[in-house]
Structures are given as structure tokens and as C-alpha cells.
Amino acid sequence: MMKGQIAGLMKQAQAMQENMKRMQDQLGQIEVEGSAGAGMVKIVMTCKHDVKRVSIDPSLLADDKDMLEDLVAAAFNDAARKAEQTSQERMASVTAGLPLPPGMKFPF
Predict the structure, then answer these.
(1) For position 101, what pLDDT does the model report?
(2) What is the rounded distance in angstroms from the CA atom of residue 102 to the CA atom of residue 92?
(3) Inter-residue contact 55 to 41 (CB < 8 Å)
(4) What angle do CA 48, 65, 68 make, to 5 degrees?
(5) What is the pTM of this model?
(6) Which are the contacts of 79, defined by CB distance < 8 A and separation ≥ 6?
């Protein structure tokens, strides 16, 4: 491999690293909402899985505690799946054209 090709590859790697850092910062700002119980329990989190808000319909507070706990867990899981999907979609734009194995998740 020629010196110029190595320098070009190093530049590409550095640019990708900068893009990955920028995308990670952006993911910390993107919010997704998960819900359960026909929207009676909602959880808003960032794509870095930081929970920002939990909303529980007041009518559930008088109901069965176990059901409420199940709905909160389901809403959290829904939000986590949406955060993961959004993260993967955003990271795909950074890794487009790279020969990565199928199913490889970013960041490593």
C-alpha cells in the first residue's frame, strides 16, 4: 500500500470518528416516547436511555399496584426499543459504505 493511500485511510478514519462523536452527542438530545395501557402510562427517554418524564393517568393510581407496575415496565421497554431503533437508524448514516458485519451495533 502506498503512503498516500494510508494517509487517505487515516483521514477517513478520523472523519468517521468525529462523525460518530457528533452522532453520539445528538442521540443524547433525541427523545422517544414509549407507552402502555392505551397511552395511560407514558415514558419519555433520550436515545441514550436517560428517562426524562414518566406520565401516569390519575385513574390508574387507585387501581391495582401490580398492574400499574406492569404498565410502567411495558412503557419503559417500548421506549427503550424505540430509542434503540432510532439510534441504529441514525448511526447507519455514519457507517454507510463501511464493510461491517451484519448486525454489528454502534457504538462498539
Answers:
(1) 61
(2) 12
(3) yes
(4) 40
(5) 0.75
(6) 32, 33, 34, 43, 44, 45, 51
- Number of structural domains, the chain? 1
The reply to whether 82 falls in a domain is yes
**3-class DSSP state of 29:** coil
Q: Is the pLDDT of residue 61 over 50?
A: yes
| 1 grid coordinates | 500500500
Grid coordinates belonging to 89: 437508524
Strand ranges across the sheet with 31-36: 31-36, 41-46, 51-56
Question: What one-character-per-residue DSSP string does 36-68 give?
Answer: ETTTTEEEEEETT--EEEEEE-GGGTTS-HHHH
Instruction: Using the Cα atoms of residue 73, residue 78, residue 79 and residue 80 in order, give the sign of their dihedral.
Output: positive
Q: Which domain holds residue 58?
A: 3-93
- Tell me the CATH number at 32: 3.30.1310.10
